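Still learning folds. Look over my entry:

…
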Amino acid sequence: MLVSFAIKNFRSFYRETHISLVPNGRLTQLEGHVLKAGDTELLRGAYVYGANASGKTNLVKAADFARSVIVAGSTRHIRYAGQYCKLYEEAGHEPGVFQFEIVVGRKVYSYGFALSYQNGNIVEEWLYELGDRGLEKCIFARDEQNQIITDLNLKGKLKTRFEIYCEDLKSLPGTLFLAEIVRKPLRKELEVFSLVYEWFKDKLIVIFPASKYMALPTIIHDEEVRKKFEKYLTYFDTGIESMGTGATTLEKELAHLPSDFAEDIRQDIMREMRELEGETCLLRGPGVLLALRRKDDKSLLVQKLTMKHGVNSEDFDLEEESDGTQRLFDLVPLLFGEQENRVVFIDEIDRNMHPSLTVELVKLFYRQTKPRNMQLIATTHESALLDLKLIRRDEVWFVERQAGGSSLFSLDDFKVRYDKKIEKDYLLGRYGAVPLFSAADFLSSRVSEND
């Protein structure tokens, strides 16, 4: 689970800023919005508001960027150049810093790294186990010279092996030590490296507005999941009464393209699928969305999802559905399934959706995921969520753009009463983080143009 996430010098964020999911222990409202991870109490949600271009999306992009570097293990194939805060000339020569405090099992860890935007080198990296009363155990800390220190009590061959791993890192300046060491055969004494790495790989999820149907392979190949999906789509009044799958062929689905172009695409797909035996991948293009899987006999199984809007209706392709319905295909999987202890960042949770649908989705999130300890961090413009009967004041965050870049602050800083109508106050600008229109300057310029 996520305790906090801090960033420095990434896009619109120059100064160090953080978002915290530690609850205000004095608040007694909506106690079901607090979960227990080991001995640590954490909020189940955080909702980030702000004007357009304030930096909300950059917060989500920071989490996605950091996760991408961690899972890949290096910056080699990551677009890092130009990700610094361009409001400051010197920022390009300063590192970007990313730090997560997380709960894995019953223990709290602080993991982070700093990277150079000039060459992609890792200039710092650290992993600490955080104990009671501020006590820290250094699992490892790495400096700019790629020197590693540790408080781990390693002995004999394991100590020698660990020292060799540390020495090898000196020739890998763009590689994370965390990811590099999990590729090695590990004994129980070093299990913490795998536990932390796998948290980022399997538990941290980022969904953008352009994300497309990540759950589609499961929906196509699992009838039970498909039936659950149908119930939610009916509940959300999408008009979809049932879903099915239809077998098709690449040739048929690419027939609308020029023959040479279609053949090039088919060859590229077959080349990729040779390495993905038994796995499902998606092919998306204008008006087409397919799930492809290479079967045991090496032939290609091509399927697409279809919807019916009535007993006698013809089949609808997914991309014929409204944008709001398509958005639900990424969000509904959060409400059911076997996933536990997941942390989900969603950019623009309200994109293409009616306010009532967004509110109901959030209500269902708290109700349906309570047994599974999930956390939701979402950016939004939807003021209908600003209701202290729906979410807690310590779950509300604001991003404000100032001359020095974006900054984050919590509604909890304002100590508003639990019965306060915060939606109205937010729209009136009493908490900041709303657009400021220079009407006088605009009208003055219009007058000058007409002179």
Q: What stands out?
A: The chain has a mean pLDDT of 90. Residues 216-328 form one domain. The chain has twelve helices and 20 strands. The first strand starts at residue 2 and ends at 8.
